[in-house]
Amino acid sequence: METKNAVKTFIYENNSYNYMTKGYQKENTCIHLMNYHFVWCPKYRRKLFKGELKQRLKQLIEEKAKQKECEILTLEIMPDHIHLFITGKPIITPNRLIGEIKGYTSRILRKEFKELMKMPTLWTRSYFVSTAGKVSQFVIQKYIEEQYSR
Question: How far apart are CA 31 and CA 10, in angstroms?
Fold first, then answer.
């Protein structure tokens, strides 16, 4: 019974009339909610991001997000890694988004902070990404499975 209530809630919350109040974004041809949690590290996981360098990195990430028409939900810059929770549009893939953020920040930080030029590159090639939304994977699967019984 709990599953059916969850499915009904999913249907209600995803009603196209309700998308604005539930955090969904509307484009010309789609309604979407694309949230990504990224984590990435500097090369050799060096503890670089403190003080002025940390503040400048934050500014650069915010600039690039604005340029890509994305909204930063949460940004935490640790000395040896970065957590970015961001919402974007479905026309930009997660790998392109993080690639542009990493490339932009590396290029500018290495120009402004000459000590970073001692490293072969600022960032590692790898990163972590996960999606997050309003409903769980379980609710979506149940909603799809129950389509024929409606």
Answer: 15
